């Protein structure tokens, strides 16, 4: 019996699925790819990528803060324009002199021009300005008493110069800038006020001490000048002690006002 020898025993047999012959011998099927091949270990798409979430969150937070800041600026601009339009529509001149009522020399209308939440603070600053006016005027009176008692004319002229310069300069240099800063919410005018108001406080403290460096210090009613004149003239000493108390009160009030206005400025900015 002659057997046909298959030269390639590993070659797959072709099977006709439409043949009516018996069951086809089981053909060698290709094995499915291994799991390791399908998963593709070591490929680039399997590498994990770390996304810095904190950076994204920070940028979003900064964007929200910037948007809120811009919205707040627009709101303030609209409020300022609204107040200015209200004043102009009412027919009230912005720089109309109306204070003091018996002899108007300055424009001053806190109740109508300053925002309601800042009116109390503006009244305190106005009290501080009236305080330095009172101190300088009483200083002239006390020095006149000292001059009459033989203190010399030079200290009288110096006290008059202090009053003539101090009253208008205090209004122009720090009170009016504060008034306009409260009305328009101007950071530049607030900065101007802080600079000259601190000089005002330094002068008040200097006057309360009255060191003997300008005509023996008797041109200012400070404590050292009061001690100097009290031994010679009790009445003059009493006037100087009252002047010393006024300058002390003005210094304390000014420091308190400075703190309040600084807190208001920081809160608004």
TrEMBL record:
Topology with respect to the bilayer: Multi-pass membrane protein
InterPro entries, per database record: SCAMP (IPR007273)
Swiss-Prot/TrEMBL keywords: Cell membrane, Cytoplasmic vesicle, Membrane, Transmembrane, Transmembrane helix, Transport
Coarse class of the protein's main subcellular location: membrane
Region of interest (Disordered), ranges: 1-63
Bilayer-spanning residue ranges: 123-150, 156-175, 187-214, 234-258
Family annotation (Pfam families): SCAMP (PF04144)
Family: Belongs to the SCAMP family.
General function of this protein: Probably involved in membrane trafficking.
Protein name as catalogued: Secretory carrier-associated membrane protein
Source organism: Canavalia gladiata
